[in-house]
Amino acid sequence: MPKKILQRTTIAALLLVGGASAALALQPPELLRVGANYSAKIVCSNVFIAGRDAQAVLADDVQAPGHPLLKFLRVKVDKEKQTVSAKLLGLFGNGLAVYRPGTGCAVVPDGDVEQARRYQFTPEPIKPGAVDAPWPQGREADLSLVPLTALQQPELTGPGARAVVVIHKGQLVGSYYAQGYNDNTPLLGWSMTKTVTAALIGMLIKDGKLSMAHNGFWPGQSDPRHAITLAQLMSMSSGLEYNEGYGDVSDVTRMLYLEPDMASYTASKPLAHAPGSHWNYSSGTTVLLSRIWQRAAAGAGSATDAATLSFAHNRLFTPLGMRTAVLEADARGNLVGSSYMYASAQDWARFGQFLLQDGVWQGQRLLPEGYVRMMQQAAPASGGQYGQGQLWRWGPSGASSGGANPDAAFQLPADTYWMEGHDGQSITIIPSQELVVVRLGLTPSSLHYQPQALVAAILKALPVATLADKARARP
Predict the structure, then answer these.
(1) For position 8, what pLDDT does the model report?
(2) Which residue positions does the secretion signal occupy (predicted)?
């Protein structure tokens, strides 16, 4: 090739690459923006809430299990401004997240950090329980009750397990923590947060500020969405159009990583089915529920002022002693009750025990009587797998369940119900056995891990006297 032609070709190639780079910098593709904002958010929360190392979080939590594109992302933490930025090759994507006291980290897709900072509060410190005080007031474990060798078996705790906590008859009887994690490490529950949202709604029902028959959440009676009830939203049967698919730019990834106001985005979705006629698992639905309870709690005030944003901390976390719990808000003050609560494994266990006790804690009824029982009842359109209160009646299905309850293969008691979250988070609650099992980690669904085997092994280790009624009918 003549030298001049080679030079022209090289210049043209450089101009093409330069032009592509400029285009990526000015207007990166949405998938790249999702990846960059996701990376910034995960690193932000783990640095400022959990106290972990930023590069370790990027490598272990973002890049190792994620989309190949994420391996080329770089993050920068500004400890003074309490922000995290993330970019592809350090140049493209413009991911940004900011930390706020009380409300954790928020993605800032519009770049307005100061607006996002407005939504915060100063939490009243929750006094830690003494190490030698009995659980749940303290952290003392009675390991003599049950020989839980299952917690030492990786095939049962599962790949990527970070914490397992076992509560039996209200006592801490066993725990496991991976290297680098302990009983004070806040861990992300992902969609287990949805059940916490249901509990907060229950508190406002007890206060007389909401009811399951409540509707009119969309203005104008001519809007067909006006008829959607709180009960239909709670059971994922609103009929709203929503795509919960991950791995691409879908409704859920757009909501979480491209929209500063997650609730308004979901509220804009049209009806795809008549309310109550179709079950569709939707994180957007739970973000709407968060906005509903925030407005109800605010009364005549603002749904995003400090008094409302601190409701979960003051009314739920403080009474239960969940001192590590943080429920995060988006960049417009919507608490992200679908996905973003951090808490230690023991604090997640306190919440599970709270449900097992029908919403009563230390003799005080915090939820309406029978409310937890209602939460467990099957959502009419779910085929039996999902409850009416943002929880699962069936555990994870692994590779396939063929449409049947996968718990049956492990002979779990009929009254077993679950809180479940992305990447292998679960809380198993079995009232007939007075058992709560928390399992947290980073276990992609592609590994088909099922915590039922762990729970079954724990059940076998329990004293025989507690196993008299394994087949008790579901309430």
Answers:
(1) 40
(2) 1-22
As given in the structure block, the two tokens for residue 93 are: 């994507």
Instruction: Output the pTM of the full model.
Output: 0.91
Whether the CB-CB separation of 391 and 417 falls below 8 Å is answered with: yes
> In terms of C-beta distances under 8 Å and separation of at least 24 residues, what long-range contacts does 179-183 make, across chains too?
183/139, 183/344, 183/345, 183/346
Q: How confident is the chain (475 residues) per 10-residue block, as mean pLDDT?
A: 39 34 55 95 98 97 87 95 93 93 98 98 89 82 70 95 96 94 97 98 98 95 95 98 91 98 98 97 98 97 96 98 98 98 98 98 97 97 96 89 88 98 98 98 95 96 55 42
Which residue bears the tokens 């990583």? 257
* Of the candidates 430, 279, 383, 260, the residue with the CA atom closest to the CA atom of residue 329: 260
Greatest C-alpha distance within the chain: 90
- Residue 260: count other Cβ atoms within 10 Å of its Cβ: 19
Rg (CA), the chain: 23
Give the residue carrying structure tokens 């603002």: 302
126 within 8 A of 136, measured Cβ to Cβ: no
Using the 8-state DSSP alphabet, how is residue 312 labeled? H
| Distance from C-alpha of 331 to C-alpha of 416, rounded to nearest angstrom | 37
- Distance separating the N- and C-terminal Cα atoms of the chain: 81
Q: Which of 284, 262, 390, 286 is nearest to 334 (CA)?
A: 262
Name the DSSP letter for residue 367.
S
User: What is the predicted pLDDT for the residue at 147?
Assistant: 60
Asked whether the beta carbons of 105 and 97 are under 8 A apart, the reply is: yes
Distance CA 158, CA 447 (A): 9
Distance, in Å, from the CA atom of 412 to the CA atom of 395, rounded to the nearest integer, reads 10
Instruction: Give the separation between CA 175 and CA 30, rounded to whole angstroms.
Output: 41
